Predict the 3D structure of the following.
Amino acid sequence: MNWFRFASPASFYPLAGRLAPWFGGGAAGFAAAGLYIGLIAAPTDATQGDAYRIIFVHVATAWMSMFIYLVMAFWCAVSLMFNARLAAMMAQALAPTGALFTALALVTGALWGKPTWGTYWAWDARMTSELILLFLYFGYMALRQAIDEPRRADRASAVLALVGAINVPIIYFSVKWWNTLHQEASVSLTSAPTMAAVMLTGMLLLALAAWFYSIAIALTRVRAIILERERHAGWVGEAALAVRGVR
Amino acid sequence: MKARTRRLGWIAGGLVLLGVATALVLNAFQSNLVFFFTPSQVAANEAPHGRAFRIGGMVEAGSLTRDSDSLTVHFRVTDTARTIPVSYTGLLPDLFKEGKGVVAQGTLGPDGSFHATEVLAKHDANYMPPQAQAAIDKAKKGMTMPSLHERSSGQ
């Protein structure tokens, strides 16, 4: 099977349309299971009581905020290298979802910080670098909007996204490199998780839900972007008529 | 060389250069990026003079006292090597506890005591049900008891 066939917007458009509902359904399923475990099945925490339960949303959104940026930067690199339209469209489709998860991570973190640390916000390295991530997403989207010619917008915003990618490892390792108010990671690739198994299960299920949601929403959004940017191509007219059920 | 290989070179080279530049900048600003200073750093005169800063460490077990007629509390912050006495007037966060992490903002008095204007609790990344915590505490007690016994019998 020739995968490069799907680098063409015309052939990727129907594929994305077929895949998106499955990922959407998966997201709903994982979210329901994860929320059940997190809010009902999991026990309270010995130190924090019920306040710790915000971890189930906070960690999933924070991981996703960083991971989406890396995926976006990857597509930007591909678009610069191969001059590939679809890669730039994928990056464009991911940005609003990444910004959404970053904002959610910041808000849930603030709501968690007040009952535990005693403050909504502190200018420590973890929180400040995550806030910079939000501004990077905003900057990427604003730069795209500011340039009318799509191919020039692709190139300029791709460079910005790639430069900003340096912030992601800074966010991730900030709690190791500097002393911060934020605690270190409970789950990492190098050591055993420091949380009870049932809590970990709920957290990972919600992380999976965030993945599936992001994929579903990015595929749906990229379809809209394809229609808008390829509107002069013949097949788009037919696809649009099919959507309206006229064909 | 193909155009796309050349572009990959530019992208990879640019990212490496950017990474090195960022590492150098972050290294240069190392002391400005820390959220708090430990009592050892304060003792070594690494903390800023004449302006507010934060100290962080553990609340020393058994050091917390409350004034009977006001909201003022006194406790000692330790990093096991050095200790700083802290006074603070106000409400303490729920997770503030002896033996647990704390970050206090304020100024260092000439007598070496720290006058805090804000006290935050710093918690660790361990999450477990209360029963499991109780079991661990019990096991720890079981482990330390014989050693205490040994020490007392040895003397």
Summary: Residues 66 and 168 of chain A are 6 Å apart (CA to CA).
